[in-house]
């Protein structure tokens, strides 16, 4: 509805891939490769870059796993999924979009007294992005959005 046209995607969950295919390919008619892939694999990132080619990307949107940050779970700082924001950062650094939207749970903000949020903000600042953190409360769910602009 905002006028963006998806050009490539990466998703590890089969159910999310099927939902995406239905919403964007079957219903909207977008033409892109959508398959189950793990962004931690370098060949997956390379395939993503190849799919995009020389096109300019205006926006990168992603949500890294929240299980290690969520107040509903055990909040395990050593959960390997907590560092997946760095995989998204590699893509952002390569594609250099004007904007990035990262989604996660509000619990990330208080993890280690805010040190995790601060680290993410600093890491993206190093590659030229300023983060504006916004909390969106919808019914019982709270999502944290990081709107990043160059």
TrEMBL record:
<protein>
    <recommendedName>
        <fullName>DNA (cytosine-5-)-methyltransferase</fullName>
        <ecNumber>2.1.1.37</ecNumber>
    </recommendedName>
</protein>
<dbReference type="GO" id="GO:0008168">
    <property type="term" value="F:methyltransferase activity"/>
</dbReference>
<comment type="similarity">
    <text>Belongs to the class I-like SAM-binding methyltransferase superfamily. C5-methyltransferase family.</text>
</comment>
<feature type="active site">
    <location>
        <position position="66"/>
    </location>
</feature>
<dbReference type="InterPro" id="IPR029063">
    <property type="entry name" value="SAM-dependent_MTases_sf"/>
</dbReference>
<keyword id="KW-0680">Restriction system</keyword>
<keyword id="KW-0949">S-adenosyl-L-methionine</keyword>
<dbReference type="InterPro" id="IPR050390">
    <property type="entry name" value="C5-Methyltransferase"/>
</dbReference>
<dbReference type="Pfam" id="PF00145">
    <property type="entry name" value="DNA_methylase"/>
</dbReference>
<dbReference type="InterPro" id="IPR018117">
    <property type="entry name" value="C5_DNA_meth_AS"/>
</dbReference>
<keyword id="KW-0489">Methyltransferase</keyword>
<dbReference type="InterPro" id="IPR001525">
    <property type="entry name" value="C5_MeTfrase"/>
</dbReference>
<keyword id="KW-0808">Transferase</keyword>
<dbReference type="GO" id="GO:0032259">
    <property type="term" value="P:methylation"/>
</dbReference>
């Amino acid at each position: 509805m905002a006028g963006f046209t998806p050009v490539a995607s990466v998703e590890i969950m089969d159910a999310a891939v099927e939902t995406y295919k239905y919403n964007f390919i079957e219903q909207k008619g977008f033409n892109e490769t959508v398959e189950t892939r793990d962004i931690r694999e370098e060949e997956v990132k390379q395939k993503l870059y190849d799919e995009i080619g020389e096109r300019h990307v205006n926006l990168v949107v992603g949500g890294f796993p929240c299980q290690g940050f969520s107040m509903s779970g055990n909040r395990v700082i050593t959960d390997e999924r907590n560092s997946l924001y760095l995989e998204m950062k590699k893509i952002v650094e390569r594609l250099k979009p004007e904007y990035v939207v990262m989604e996660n749970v509000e619990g990330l903000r208080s993890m280690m007294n805010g040190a995790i949020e601060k680290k993410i903000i600093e890491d993206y600042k190093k590659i030229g992005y300023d983060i504006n953190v916004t909390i969106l409360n919808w019914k019982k769910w709270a999502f944290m959005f990081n709107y990043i602009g160059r």
